[in-house]
Amino acid sequence: MIPALQPGDKIAIVSTARKITAQELVPAIQTFENWGLQVVLGQTIDASYNQFAGEDALRLQDFQQMLDDETVKAIVCARGGYGTTRIIDQVDFTKFRQRPKWVVGFSDVTTIHSHIHNLGIETIHAIMPVLFGREGTIDSVETLRKTLFGENLNYSSAPHPFNRTGTAQGQLVGGNLSMLHTLTGTKSDINTEGKILFLEDLDEYLYHIDRMLVHLDRSGKLSNLAGLIVGDMSDMKDNSIPFGKTAYEIIAEHTGKYNYPVCYNFPVGHEPLNLALICGRNAMLNVSDLGAKLEYVLCK
């Protein structure tokens, strides 16, 4: 179990993917400092190489330095975009495995969540600093605070017509659908058997969603789940000849042959309400006619 943060602890903000300026981080820095934390900005902040936060070597060095620095108690990825898969295989997790710390982010950071999950260490899928201060994100930020500081969190979501009732228990894993699809067959690929998988995505063509679901199903990622949580599928796109199904309908089609509980419209993903989830933590999902509940449970 990773130790909860304490006032006075040092956290680092780095970018493993798209570039970002220090000015964009002001709301997040102020928030972290209001929580009593010391904030250290990595070398990737204000760095620029085309769309990236510096060249691969710099992003790798920055992330590696913060992983190895024993005074840094958590690493928060500044933003997503694209770029983490370019460096993940070069990261040395030796010292991190000896002294684990929280790593936070979502979207492209799904790469890090999945890779670290294979080390048997938990991470936090949550709102990132680039989004702090935006309208509607206060509750998302608060769930991150509670998670970092070890406060208990139980979540619920409203009923949805596509929900499939039932109860599931298992490790919570997942993240961005496109990234999970990309990681298949790599060192960062995760085993989903007996686990509760959560999915979200942004700005994808509907036929891409279908293609990725077909691939995940063919590769065995959907058949033996304990349960499935479907988050936001934001800003979906279509062609001039419509695909004919929504993202939720596509997911329902490809998971309909299985019997595990499924909940839809869970607040996780690229929307203002993006609840912090602990990847790798044992959880209980209960889906009923009244909606869905998600809570963490202690392993016996």
TrEMBL record:
GO biological process: proteolysis
Boundaries of every LD-carboxypeptidase N-terminal domain copy: 11-126
Any one GO molecular-function label of the UniProt entry: serine-type peptidase activity
Highest taxon of the lineage: Bacteria
Pfam annotation, one family: Peptidase_S66C
Segments forming domain LD-carboxypeptidase C-terminal: 169-284
Keywords in alphabetical order: Carboxypeptidase, Hydrolase, Protease, Serine protease
Active site (UniProt): 107, 200, 270
Family indicated by similarity: Belongs to the peptidase S66 family.
Protein name: LD-carboxypeptidase
Organism: Pontibacter burrus
